[in-house]
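WARN  no MSA supplied for this record, continuing single-sequence
INFO  ligand: adenosine-5'-triphosphate
INFO  echoing inputs
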Amino acid sequence: MENKPSTSNFIKNIVIQDLQSGKHDEIITRFPPEPNGYLHIGHAKSIVLNFELADEFKGTTHLRFDDTNPTKEETEYVESIKEDVKWLGFDWEKLFFASDYFEEMYNRAVLLIKKGKAFVCDLSAEEIREYRGTLTKPGKESPYRDRPTEENLDLFQRMKNGEFQDGEKVLRAKIDMSSPNLNMRDPVIYRIVHASHHNTGDKWCIYPMYDYAHPLEDAIEGITHSICTLEFEDHRPLYDWVVRECEMESQPQQIEFARLNLTNTVMSKRKLKQLVDEGIADGWDDPRMPTIAGLRRRGYTPEAIRNFCREIGVAKSHSVVDAQMLEHFIREDLNIKAPRTMAVLKPLKIVITNYPEGEVEMLEGENNPDDPSMGTRQIPFSREIYVEQEDFMENPPKKYFRLFPGNEVRLKHAYFIKCNEVIKDENGDVVELHCTYDPETKSGTGFTGRKVKGTLHWVDAKHAVPAEFRLYEPLILDEEEEEGKTFLQQINPNSLEILQGFVEPTMKDAKIEDKYQLFRHGYFNVDKKHATSDRLVFNRIVSLKSSFKINK
Ligand code: ATP
Ligand code: MG
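INFO  complex generated
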């Protein structure tokens, strides 16, 4: 991976201080996804932050699956998350599952009970909510709060042994029902769930809640800096309470930063799963999805995503990043890497009437004018070619410099051609143009006799390779955001356009995930799902230009 100096941020400053003061000799961070869906670009921000922070200070980063919720978690998600983290260019030193700590978590809960810091409560979920109170109303203590320790120990063990139904009892921390912080009002720390767990099977029927499990996971692994998103700021006193009262040796520090939000994008595994389950997206790796798998299939590179994550940085306040900024980084990367070629997405046939029948000549095209080391390619040219339907108008407006009757244009890498005749079918639709070419005007020969304003891309009809092109627009429309509207009512009905056209023969053997800059159309990627050995299918990653300017 390239060595980019990371930008400064407030989290890094905390790390520097902790190393200087001797609080820590070594930094250990973690990326702790719950395996309940595929990773999205927001997770990439957290991955880049955690791995690069530890890396910079010669520390380590753990990949830990926060799998404490058996009904939502699956092995498929575990595998996809591992693949995506690797693909982004990061390698975890150690891989952990929170479920490996269930025994220890249980023992620490027993310790809390013995210390009089936890109790078994028989209130229903609804009653617990009622008793909790609100920001303006103090909470009310549970009638089970003063259960004797022996009874709590017995009941908790029987919960573990499967003697009770889901929801019948919970274990709660005994903290403070009058705390101004609702999270401290005797939070539930264990619940009963009779469900098979992807890792532990049916061994357990009680599961720790996030606010109890997460600090223990961090402490068990010796995490020094536990970085999470801002919603957990109010949970920090509980985080510290758990570490302290459970008498953990290691004391991790929770640090919060603002989660990434992008325009025209839903960023929650739960919502993304809904798009998949309802068939609105073609799987988790649909090229319109903001998942890592979707971005990869669309044609994004790990470099572009990493550079984007570095550029947005970390902050303490919420903001929404323009999705065009992500596009900026893929253009920047592919401008260097992607060879240039030509493709016609909506073909219109042209017969060059003065070109000898049966003759073919090979023209030369640079693969990247900015980088001669990428070499050149051979482009066949003969009597029949395709151009873009949109590059012809029978009655053009002023300043239209493309083809119209009597006008001359340049064919990229080839000759000037002039439109002489328009052939139509019985419906009056244009089906073919008859043009003449000027042999004097061959590209690369230094012809200066006259100038033309339009330069068109084209492919030779006989040698053209048929290809499908998939053009995308955002899946979610921001502007339709209205009160009471859910994201499912903001789905863009025109987010996918499929076209059948042609590419240059040089692209005949393009492989899955090969990327090209198609002249005038943008950057394209061979689609993993639809392309086969004899059928080319391209995803448009991004068009060529954007008005978006990044402030550097
Ligand atoms: P989701 O609602 O999408 O499932 P989550 O926060 O519940 O998000 P986790 O699997 O628990 O997802 O997250 C793993 C890590 O990724 C956490 O540390 C979390 O803070 C971070 N993360 C998740 N979403 C974002 C985001 N949009 N921006 C930055 N970090 C994020
Ligand atoms: Mg979650």
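The domain at 27-262 is CATH 3.40.50.620 (Rossmann fold).
INFO  checksum written, moving to next record
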